[in-house]
Design a protein that fits this description.
The protein has helices at 14-21, 46-50, 63-68, 78-95, 118-133, 145-157, 183-191, 211-219, 224-237, 241-259, and strands at residues 6-11, 31-34, 41-44, 72-74, 99-103, 106-110, 137-142, 164-166. It is of the alpha/beta class.
Length: 271
């Protein structure tokens, strides 16, 4: 049984936030920071994101938006960012005996040994970091580091959470109402439609397909759009849209974990 609890503390739009600390007039304004040689945008305020400016886009491709919307553009100042990162990490390290600095703007802390209210701890840590550094952070809490990253994504996206999301004790975030997740099962469960998969394993290399095979191929994906609509309704009703978005964005990292021999699968359907 896994009784571990991890929190991921991630600075919000870190490079932009660092610039705002020393220039408060930038607050609530669209701001971006650039990569080396001022090539691409690597940090964006939420106001810049709202304008449709994407992460990693070359500056020249959004020049019209930058000029029209009076977006503030900064060259990277890595000396400043490293100093601000050190200040944030010192506060995090002081708050927990088990701290792992993950990147310049992220750190994991293990909370398993602490007898605390995890969410209260996270809100207080956010407040302390903001008070002493001026840097806003989001905190995701879960039973694994990977799930804490999912929780952190939700904390960033859902403003009603005030920067903290805990998945401790939450299970089965990826399920419908049954163990069946194939096309046939979903058609029956969500649409009350029975379909036959009899031709699925037939010989598709044969140049002369049967009438049944042709009909199967033509109708096999017929109900996908209706299923998608039903699943979206369920996600919205259960307030899981941001969790699903976070899980999808996490998939490339999950693939990397697979390639490195990671054995624990957070997407497993087993109990």
């Amino acid at each position: 049984m896994n009784n571990k609890v991890f929190a991921l503390i991630d600075c919000n739009a870190f490079y932009v936030s660092c610039e705002r600390v020393f220039n408060p007039k930038l607050n609530n304004r669209p701001v971006v920071a650039l990569s080396n040689n001022d090539g691409c945008i690597i940090s964006r305020s939420k106001e810049a994101k709202a304008l449709g400016i994407k992460m990693g886009v070359p500056l020249f491709k959004v020049k019209d938006i930058v000029e029209k919307e009076n977006v503030f553009v900064f060259s990277s100042n890595y000396t400043l960012y490293a100093d601000m990162s050190r200040r944030v990490m010192n506060i995090i390290s002081y708050s927990s005996p088990h701290t792992e600095i993950y990147s310049i703007d992220e750190a994991f802390v293990e909370l398993s040994s602490l007898s605390i209210d995890y969410e209260e701890y996270a809100h207080q840590l956010r407040k302390t970091i903001l008070q002493h550094t001026g840097i806003p952070v989001s905190i995701g809490i879960a039973s694994t580091k990977t799930l804490s990253k999912v929780a952190n994504h939700k904390a960033k996206k859902d403003e009603t959470l005030n920067g903290v999301c805990s998945l401790v004790g939450h299970k089965n975030i990826d399920r419908t109402y049954s163990q069946g997740h194939g096309y046939k099962d979903l058609c029956k469960e969500l649409l009350n439609i029975d379909i036959s998969k009899k031709q699925q394993s037939s010989d598709w290399s044969n140049p002369d397909l049967t009438k049944e095979q042709i009909n199967y191929a033509a109708t096999d994906v017929m109900h996908l759009h209706a299923i998608k609509i039903k699943l979206d309704e369920i996600l919205k009703r259960q307030n899981r849209e941001l969790l699903v978005e976070a899980c999808i964005k996490f998939l490339p990292i999950r693939v990397e974990l697979d390639l490195r021999g990671w054995e624990n699968d957070i997407f497993s359907h087993s109990n």
